[in-house]
Fold this protein.
Amino acid sequence: MRTLLSTIALAACALTASFNAAADTLRSEAEVRQLTDKVMAAAGKGRTDDAYSAMTPYALADVNTLDRARVSARNSRMQLEQFIGSSVGYEFIRSEKVGDSLLKLVYIEKAEKQAIPWQFIFYKTGAGWALSAFSNSDNINTVFSR
């Protein structure tokens, strides 16, 4: 199980591997929250493709990099469900802003047997907020650490 979750985390972290200057942006922190709620609503229903599709336009990663991460996460998720059960929802945990340029939102995806932490980091570009990085893994301690 740890290997499968680590695979999801590594695939998700691939989002930061290369940058695409053409990312759409969000105008406010409220819009950032609306986007991540949409992503997590899909994840909380086990719809990995929909979760990735919702965040793709705002990601600073190359679309091909993000697509490879999506496929890897979907495949890993199907195997992972044998151990933790199906997704049954999500919960917002907290947001943390560092300076004026970085915003992190932390959620958990609720599965039948275990919570999966998700973290989104947004960077404020000259045009607005864009998704710089995100991750999900089996390290539940990340939810508690500050």
